[in-house]
Amino acid sequence: MEEALESMMSRLQDVVAQPRLTQETLIEITSIYNNVAYIFLYLEANDEFVDFERLLPWRDAFHKDPELDRRILEMLLDLRCPDAEAEESRQAYVAQLRAKTEAKDGAVEEELESLLSEAKGVLDDVQRDQAGLLERLGAKTASGSPSAVFYKLSSQVSSPTTRRKLARAWQSARDARLPHLLDLVDRMVAVRRQASAADGHPSVLAETFTKCSVREADVAAFLERYLERAVAAHQELEAEIRHLCPDAGDAPFAHFAHCVRTATSAAKPPMFALDDCLDYIFTVARRVFGLTLTRRAASASQVLTVTVRSEHGEVGHINFDLWDTDSKTIGANHTKGIRNRTDWSGVVQRPVAYVSCRFRRGADGAELITFQNMHSLFHEFGHAVNHLLIRKRISNRSGLEYLPLERLEYLSMWFEKWAYHPDLAQYLSLTPAAEEGLALCRRIKMVEYRRTYLERAVLAALDFDVHRRGDSDLATSFRRLDERFGIGRHCTLGDFPGYFTWPMFVANPGANFAYLFGAADSAQKFSSFHHTPLTELAVDQVPRDLFTPCFDFDAPTPLPDSEALFAFYDTARLYDGTVTGTAGRARNAEEAGARA
Questions:
Q1: Least confident among 85-99, 447-461, 573-587
Q2: Which of 44, 147, 384, 487 is 20 to 30 A from 322 in CA distance terms?
Q3: What is the C-alpha separation between 478 and 472, in angstroms, rounded?
Q4: What does pTM read for this prediction?
Q5: What's the Cα-to-Cα distance from 112 to each of 211, 467, 547, rounded to whole Å?
């Protein structure tokens, strides 16, 4: 590895020592940096197997040498490329180096980082307060997050009165620190406004939209339609909860966990063989995209490497790092493009995606995963396929980060929908009881998504509104939405500030609507596949341009139909006409008598 880095640095120095760049040496420089990035991203993901820190000086040599950056920028400014794609690459490289040398005010970045750190500290305090509440109630918190433990506790409480009291106590523990958290979030927004204005943008949102290909007005209209529909759908679910829990009162969602438990008879969900899940989703990729995925021989690390081919030859590779270990430090499942595509004048670098998850093996070491794990795996696989199939041929203009923000979740959410395809059970070698368990898992996952309709919609609308305006704070934006849509009857301001510390909100303020775009677009696209047997699908039957926006930056972004999302998830009902448990049997008997 060290020899490869030394060789690339030597060649880079030779190129920049020349009087001028050519189109070909521009591509060579971008491919060198593409390989360097690949090496370090791969090593970072496998740091338990290599001495990663020993090679860090090499990373600094490539990325933290002002004189090298200055020379490359100087040569780029003197170059004009006859090929349009190469010229686009040159201009992007110029913008990247200028942004690097003309970095934002360090004081602004430090202030934002300080506020973010303090906000995360407040959230840690909230978790400790909630954990203390659970311990006083006799619930053990060592086995999971306080919110997960509270959900389980609430599901097991039979008394509606007690559940209401628990919900109020839980919210009080959260909201005790709400004024401090709101102040920090509002100050972060204010700092961003000052920084965006200094860079010549009319708003924070306008700056974020330089990375989008949709108009603010179109997104605003989409969010209004979505929010209006989400309020109605939320009310429908409230009615289902009240059907199962007539004593729900004015806070029906305090009883949601208990209703889920009632609806499922507290059944234990099945586990699924990882290899079967991978074989299934690989089959989907073959049937729809013409991709053949072949596993390489196992190596000393726990990473599974898969070679991806199409009828035209090798496409790239996907590395699956799926199992939790003591040394694994990731906080959430994610996918990185650790090498981008280069295919130019004899310079060929095939893209590589790295899927990292935190699944847990069984006590006996069995590689079995839950339905939620499977759902996450299919989602991350979608990101990986997306990275491999981006159509640009030059490395600094390819990769997931190249797509407009609003399309980043299109393909990943489309792939996750395959967890709901009827043919899945055929690939999982399930017993009849396990097939019933799979159907139950799907139903509950979909009902739980319905529970979040309104929260997702309000969150995206708040993020959009507060970063679009020049003077609003989070509370004012919430009040404005309440006056228009009546959201205050179903959620509270305290439900939302914590999300504004998440990476997506920090990196792209105002763009959380991208998740709603992805959810709606994927449901719309999946509808034509949902009830078609997998064996009947073929690449030549898939509409030619259906997935073009997922792979081609220059393609227009079609505004998704949010109704497709509601149509998909609303097929799952919390109450399906049969209620289990003692109270449920009595209620069923009453309804049977009434029908008689």
A1: 573-587
A2: 147
A3: 10
A4: 0.89
A5: 21, 15, 37
